[in-house]
Amino acid sequence: MNPAIQMEPNMSDPSSAPSGRTRMLSIRNLSKTFKLHMLGGVELPAVSGVSFDVLQGEFVGLAGPSGAGKSTVLKCIHRTYLASSGEILYASSRQGKLDLARLPEPDVLELRRTEIGFVSQFLRVIPRVGAQDLVAEPIRIRLGLDAPAAAARAAELLDRLRIPRRLFFAYPATFSGGEQQRVNIARAVAWEPRLLLLDEPTASLDAASVETVVELFAELRRGGATLVGIFHDPELLERIADRTVRIGDPG
Amino acid sequence: MRVREWMDRDTAPKGTFAFLDDGAKKDVRRALLKAVAIPGYQVPYGSREMPLARGWGTGGIQITLSMLLPDDVVKVIDQGCDGSVNAVNIKKFYERTARVKITTDTALASVIQTRHRIPEEKMTDRQILVLQVPYPEALREVEPSEAQTRRMHAEADYGRMWLHLYEDIVRFGEIRIAYRYPCTVNGRHVMDPSPIPRWDVPKLHMADTLFLFGAGRERRIYAVPPHTRVEPLEFDDHRFRVEDFSGKACARCGATDTFLDEILMPDGTRTHFCSDSGHCDKRRA
Amino acid sequence: MDALLRVHGITRRYGSGCPQCLDNTGAAAGTNRCDACGSVWACRDVSLELRAEEALGIVGESGSGKSTLVKLLHFDDAATSGYVELARMPALEGVDDLYAEGCDWSRDVLSMDRYRQRKARDASMGIVYQHPHLGLRMGVSAGGNVAERLLSAGWRSIAAMRARASELLERTEIPLSRMDEPPRNFSGGMQQRVQIAKALSGDPAILLLDEVTTGLDLSVQARVLDMIRTLREELRLSMLVVSHDLGVINLLCQRTMVMKNGQVVESGLTDQILQDPQHGYTQLLVASQLQ
């Protein structure tokens, strides 16, 4: 049996899941320490003892002072960071509960391909691919649409995010910060992930774009998606998240 | 040639018969047996010093000497000709050392030794053809290293040989190999059929006769046993073709179905004669 | 996604070896040469699994053993120990006795004779070397280079081979007007693209890339990398990408192994290796790259 698949008896305990919905994420005692070998092996604790749950369909915001480790938690969930200890239990659609902290890499990749998306603060994409192709790619590969259909869906998203049509074939590396971020979001929501992790996705957006992005997130949620995010703007967080988990507070 | 009968050649007289000592003959015969067992495979053997220089047919001579019997009838030809100096000298050598009969008639010979041709007349299962080979390695053209060509044969790694032919076709529109045309023997080894013209290559395929190849300088013996597939390397859309002599005939015997040599006459005109002189003589007689 | 290739403890040692070798060599010792006996452990106890349609990166400095590993997997060089298995796939059914009856995995390919190794390799793998002269016959036409594996595989129609070569050369953006020219007339980038066309001729499930963009101009490098990305998606290739350049690895690979002094010191998801490297050497590598 896969050691990463862990059954926890109280996961279905209705008292901790009041609405009766499944727990999508269950983070238990997550700690992350960076060991810097180049500095003589000094250890930098980033987060320690973080525990919280996210229910299916919920939008949970992570809050806390700068440097509290909000982003670290998101990256541990995405497995971009390796958790030092603790569990990140995820209710996958096909394999049941999986511990993302210890899941074999190919299985993590499979989840990233089919279920879990991540939007970073900066556009980190393949160079020399046009904006429309960039957004169409996950639609084609992950949703299995043919190339013209994927291109049409990508165009629709980019239109809504007010990326000028003349930029569709241009490389996003040449775009302004706000445009890059909008392409980034279009690419992330395009394939309708089941769990979307957001690391300050609206940081460089103007007010009108923020409204569109909020709409897109709402649409994702209507489709059943679960979102966990960090927002620099507390008012925005208050408005779009169901609830907030504070990171970095004692206890 | 039945194997039993051929094996019985071991009953040849001992002593000084046919120049080679018994040990040398045994070495060659052992190589011959292996060569027949693995058609097209080059068997190394200890080529002996002969009373003529290497490169003058010593490989063929050693094979012939190793299996001659006193009642053999031997024909020796050089480029189809019974009367060339080299052929005549070799015949005299056999006459003197093995007291065998000599003939120019293909049909009468029991053993025929040849350089660069296969007789026109169809040979039978009672006869053996011994071919002199200058360069036994068919792959040498594409690979200079002996270690590599041995490996290539062992692994049937013939892609580069085929690539060589592909390049010929791409560059020149045809395969430009006039003689030493590489053949696949028994569906396995690629073999150099010795410098015979393409005209003679089909005669090796599923023949009644045993063909033995000897390279004295390179110390290799190989064989094509009777009824063995010998297929020239060819492509589905670029077939192997023999030389085209259509519209030409031998000026001596009038043959239109033989391999012809083109001769420049003293008056500057060109004319054609049969390359196989024995066959030509027989037709005129 | 199922695995296509499994490698267990593959090792290449030059020299006789001695009892001190294991202590004297490897990443911890900082060398792959044993002081006591002079043996060089070019590649030591490397295991990996390559899945279908996955690109696995192998990163490390020169002398880390990454290129040796590729040579061993392509049977260009013989391993000292270890074993290699290939998943059952239709292209390999023709290789005699490769699979035991009813098994999903082949027997150990390393211990097979060279003839069957070559058959198995030609039917399942393509390779692109850093130096085009290793992968190409410089005096043979570009089309002939592509045709070579087809000829080895028994293709005997010039027209069909030329059609296939044209298709591959077109994919790799070599003008067809130059198909019958030898690669020695070509630029470095073009030679590399002919090499890629040649590597793809046998319709391989696995593509081995050994420092394919090293030594090319930046713009040429970009073009080759973009082409590899496109081909990977279109042909659903699995790739083993060897490079000293984390940028190349980041662009192409989902998973990465880090090698040093013949050993694997770390392996993980590529973004994790880049953003949260665990081993001191990887941290040094990442820090050196990003500056």
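Residues 91 and 97 of chain A are 4 Å apart (CA to CA).
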